[in-house]
Amino acid sequence: MYDGAFNKIERELRNEEGVANELDYVEQTSWVLFLKYLHDLESERRDRAELDGKDYTPIITGRYTWDQWAAPKTDGKFDHNRALIGDDLIRFVNDNLFPYLASFRETATSPRTIEYKIGEVFNELRNKFRSGYILRDVLETIDELAFNTQDQRHELSQLYESRIRRMGNAGRNGGEYYTPRPLIRAMIKVIDPQIGESIYDGAVGSAGFLCEAYDYMRPRASSATDWQTLQTRTFFGQEKKGLAYIIGIMNMILHGIETPNLIHSNTLNENVMDIQEKDRHDIILANPPFGGGERREVQQNFPIRTGETAYLFLQHFIRKLRAGGRAAVVIKNTFLSNTDNASVALRRELMEAAELHTILDCPQGTFQGAGVKTVVLFFTKGTATRDIWYYQLDPGRSMGKTNPLNDDDLAEFVDLQRSRAQGLKSWIVNRADLDDATCDLSVKNPNAPEAEALRSPEAIIDDMLARDAETASVLENIRRML
Fold it and tell me: Over the chain, what is the mean pLDDT?
């Protein structure tokens, strides 16, 4: 049902002048889906309140409810006579609906309410539909979808993730928002978050880490208290870019986290020396953006000053962890070996402030279109590094769009990491054996089979001459036969 609906909407949007690319597609589909999801959520809450004998105050009221403007019905059937179409529909959305929903940010009782998040979403979003007839078709398609059961919401969230992945593959800007989900799931399995622990991502993007962590922890919620903890006191994030922030909020809500604790701000504007205990978290899961080129005033917020965005985020994450807290962070593999002062100082700080116990070396092509190799750093704050277990991931094939990373590729890593077993792909390096001047952490597998020695140029030339002579002999025999 959902897949067919998404495909139908995509066909409609190809004819919409205001929707130019995959990023626009995800953005514009998202706000319509979001409002239908909220309508179904409100209906569920109203029914639950009635069963409990309580009153229910809806979030969205009057002519702004879904069944008034998007899908008016009479006797349970769609009423085309009451439905806005064409320019009337576009004017209502632009001049009435969006301003009404955006006002929730000012009237909400707390930033940690769903009302506030709705207000933020519609302050950031702009309706890009120009044709009220295409929008009407999209509304009617989405109205046919139901989000009333956990299975239905799970199917929707998976399809939404697939669209985010396509957005990520559509270009560099989109790619900043998408981390392969099998890699995220492997990182979460190693970290093993427990209910009651808080999880933070300071470069939250489309909130893939938080959504996957929620899916991992949800089956463990065995009481109403556990459920409330998951909903309100577990998942936290910050995001600088507007589109990513919007998609992150909607992705979390569509996954079932009703009031996402996401903040729209530049994480790196925070002076890390001002971070207090109340600001810290038990777990950090993140894939900060690579490259960058942060301004000098931003670099002033960090003891190790550098224009490399990922290095600033890593300093932030170290200080955002509570003592005993656990982290898994994706970073470029050049971080392990760069000889500039900032890289050396940061490696030293990491190993002194935390136990860097595991490094996962990811193959080229793990991140489609990124053009760089990456590693994942797993560390626990509080005690200095003693030794590091390395695992060199080798799926046995070239990675790419048609051969992406999958969960089976990472199963052995997750299994061996528990015991830190050594083998052809894994080994341990003692901190005492590292060069203290450079703190070089390069991936150098001592257990890999030795490659065959390269032949000498003389041997290669001799082989070529022999083959040429053999070819000449064959051709001469053919000539005699003609």
Answer: 88
Burial label for 206, CB within 10 Å (0-12, 13-18, 19+), is buried
Residue 387 in contact with residue 430, Cβ under 8 Å? yes
Q: Three-state SS for 382?
A: coil
Token pair, residue 205, equals 């993007």
Element (H, E) at 330: strand 321-332
The one-letter amino acid code at 144 reads: E
3-state secondary structure 230-299: HHHCCEEEEECCHHHHHHHHHHHHHHCCCCCEEEECCHHHCCHHHCCHHHCEEEEEECCCCCCCCCHHHH
CATH number for domain 173-433, candidates 3.40.50.150, 1.10.10.60, 3.90.1580.10, 3.40.1180.10 = 3.40.50.150
Cα distance between residue 283 and residue 381, in whole Å: 10
> Which amino acid appears at position 53 of this protein?
G
Residue 452 has pLDDT above 60, yes or no: no
**Three-state secondary structure call for residue 375:** strand
Q: Which of 28-32, 89-93, 411-415, 429-433 has the least mean pLDDT?
A: 28-32
Q: What is the pLDDT of residue 244?
A: 82
Q: Hey, is 463 helix, strand or coil?
A: helix
Q: Is the pLDDT of residue 87 over 50?
A: yes
Q: Tell me how far apart the alpha carbons of residues 106 and 120 are, in angstroms, rounded to a whole number.
A: 9
Tokens 């989900």, located at residue: 181
Domain spans in the chain, listed from the N-terminal domain onward: 2-148, 173-433
Q: Which of 139-153, 219-233, 356-370, 391-405 has the highest mean pLDDT?
A: 219-233
Residue at token pair 């962890």: 321
Domain 2-148 in CATH 1.20.1260.30: yes
DSSP 3-state of 41: helix
Measured at the CA of 180, the angle between CA 33 and CA 159, to 5 degrees, comes to 25
Measured distance CA(110)–CA(108) in Å, rounded: 6
H or E segment to which residue 356 belongs:
strand 354-361
Band (pLDDT 50/70/90 cuts) for residue 174 is: very low
The pLDDT value recorded for residue 243 is 78
Which structure tokens are listed for 286?
Answer: 């993140």
